[in-house]
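User: Run a structure prediction on this.
Assistant: Running it now.
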Amino acid sequence: MTRIEQLERRIRRLGSSIVAFSGGVDSSLVACLAARALGERALAVTAVSPALATGELAGARRVAETIGIRHETITTAELARDGYRRNGSDRCYHCKSELYDRLADLAARRGYAAVLSGANADDLGDWRPGLRAAAEHGVRHPLVEAAVGKEEVRALARALGVPSADKPASPCLASRIPYGTPVDPSALARIDRAELALKRLGYRVLRVRHHGQLGRVELAGDELPRALACADEVVAAVRSAGYARVEISEQPFRSGSLAAAFTKQLPLAPAPDRPASVS
């Protein structure tokens, strides 16, 4: 039995499912597997809020159409949660609690047996407070349960023709705001405008870190030399979004740098076919 067949069989046993679907490679792979295993009994749902970057919803819709899964959107209100706005190191817990509250309610009303996430095995070694929220809501993680890591996720997505197989990670806009700095709609909108301006210049893997009136630009290693050579262009783009000051980091972008100090393993929801603890 192939790896894809194993994953499909695991999902098929659920009977029906909602997939928390961002359009990134992880959730897209799970959505593709769910569509193959469950057909019309699978539904991909994308959460829309001020923390969703421009273009991400359109991208998710394209992926859903290509892989053949039904797709809907919901509106989440994580900004109404004090814990989210305070932006402590557990911000993602409050964000995912809002998401999974909404998805669990939708699943109950529509008669879906499970809510699935795109978490993969490599996420267990990172700081992921959202996994605690998932455990509290009984969310299933097919890729974690099958010990599928990020490299294999991309390989399986390519094999299945998933359009986002090589898509760079694009976490919510709040991830650009340092822990302890409150999250508010105006900051999220400014970050979004700045990153969109840089994407229009042709940069693909980037973050604009929000430090009040300072926007700190981080770019992938292969794109950084061009940015440093064209610094005036980059600075102008970020200033056009409303930042008074702009810095271009001379160090290549590294995903998860804000959370590095909080790395730890978090518990997962028990599944019927695996032990309750993860070691």
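The chain has two domains: 3-167, 184-253.
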